[in-house]
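Input structure tokens:
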């Protein structure tokens, strides 16, 4: 009997009989995004693997992220454009990078909508395709968030704003996957991240391209609605933010309200139907967020000195947890809420280290997580392909024929 590390023999039956169930309730998706994807996918050759479309979409976002990372390594460099008189200064961030990010997000969204349609069109739908798609989506969550932070010129000291922008997509993604783990169906609400969220992010980047990052530090949005906002609310917001309510603060508050609404609805539904015990599988995300908050409060210099490394680390930890949850969903196995990859965060929180040691620790932790996740991804893809008898990026070549030929067993 075949023995896999992640796909054990008891996983094979559920994996072979797995059927995806889901729905996107977004009106924009139903009447605009889905028809657009349908019309484009009809022009794609039938030999193109759905996973290739997924990967091509992710490459758009990786390219955009690397470009913005080059010009905005500390996240807030775009805001300096409005305070730099010399337009030829090397510190000036070119506006076109945010236009490119807008285009990249729209391309990613369209290609992400196309991959499933291509799978159904070529009759190549599989749990591997679902897991690959979700894995790319989870990895993209920090790419998009970091680019939005740069587009708004948020300073690394503004931990609340950065925390909401970076973690809101992760939390919403995890809770949606958590709900699917129990119900067997992925339901995206009428306003959701893959549809309205990405369109909003593209519009945000477009606004920065047109008016600069300084636009998000103006107060026009709040001034417009302040006449209907109760006085005590204004005072509370100004007191907490330590200054006027900027456009970026309004964006953050809107994101937070939408997150609370969506997460609240899903959590209450699952708890009511499956009992309080289901909360245990939320423990990894809860502990992850709590540990990150604890580390930042205890050692604020870590993020100030290493903003990109910290974001990369959070992304890798999140990807490991949520993809494992999805893997357990597709194989009908129990998800272990104790994620050992989070233990170094506990060490980072409680151990008395110097600033230099903190920096070395975070860098080493990030590199180790990247290596581990890369190996885990490779092994899971290999084992799933072996069970399903398919290739990840090839839907034409028969698996058996090529597999036997590679092992020198092909009979003439």
């Amino acid at each position: 009997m075949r023995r896999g590390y992640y796909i054990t023999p008891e996983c094979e039956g559920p994996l072979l009989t797995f059927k995806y169930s889901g729905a996107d309730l977004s009106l924009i998706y139903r009447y605009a995004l889905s028809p657009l994807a349908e019309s484009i996918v009809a022009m794609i050759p039938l030999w193109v693997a759905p996973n290739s479309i997924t990967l091509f979409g992710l490459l758009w976002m990786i390219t955009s992220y690397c470009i913005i990372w080059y010009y905005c390594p500390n996240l807030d460099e775009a805001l300096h454009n409005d305070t730099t008189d010399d337009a030829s200064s090397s510190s000036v961030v070119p506006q076109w990078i945010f236009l490119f990010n807008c285009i990249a997000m729209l391309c990613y969204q369209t290609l992400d909508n196309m991959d499933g349609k291509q799978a159904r069109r070529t009759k190549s739908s599989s749990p591997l395709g679902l897991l690959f798609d979700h894995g790319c989506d989870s990895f993209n969550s920090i790419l998009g968030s970091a680019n939005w932070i740069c587009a708004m010129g948020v300073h690394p000291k503004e931990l609340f704003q950065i925390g909401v922008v970076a973690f809101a997509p992760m939390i919403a993604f995890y809770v949606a996957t958590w709900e699917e783990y129990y119900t067997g169906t992925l339901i995206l609400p009428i306003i959701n991240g893959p549809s309205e969220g990405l369109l909003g992010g593209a519009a945000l980047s477009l606004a920065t391209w047109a008016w600069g990052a300084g636009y998000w530090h103006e107060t026009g949005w709040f001034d417009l609605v302040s006449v209907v906002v109760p006085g005590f609310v204004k005072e509370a917001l100004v007191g907490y933010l330590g200054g006027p309510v900027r456009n970026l603060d309004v964006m953050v508050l809107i994101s937070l309200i939408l997150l609370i609404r969506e997460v609240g609805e899903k959590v209450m539904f699952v708890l009511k139907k499956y009992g309080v015990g289901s909360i245990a599988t939320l423990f990894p995300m809860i502990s992850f967020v709590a540990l990150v908050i604890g580390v930042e409060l205890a050692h604020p210099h870590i993020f100030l000195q290493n903003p990109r490394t910290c974001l990369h680390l959070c992304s890798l930890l999140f990807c490991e947890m949520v993809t494992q949850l999805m893997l357990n969903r597709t194989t009908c196995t129990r998800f272990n809420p104790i994620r050992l990859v989070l233990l170094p965060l506990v060490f980072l929180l409680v151990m008395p280290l110097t600033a230099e040691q903190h920096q070395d620790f975070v860098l080493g932790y990030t590199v180790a997580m990247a290596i581990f996740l890369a190996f885990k991804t490779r092994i899971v893809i290999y084992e799933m392909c072996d069970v399903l008898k398919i290739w990840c990026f090839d839907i034409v070549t028969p698996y058996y024929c090529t597999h036997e030929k590679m092992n020198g067993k092909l009979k003439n």
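Strands lie at 22-24, 186-188. The chain has a mean pLDDT of 92.
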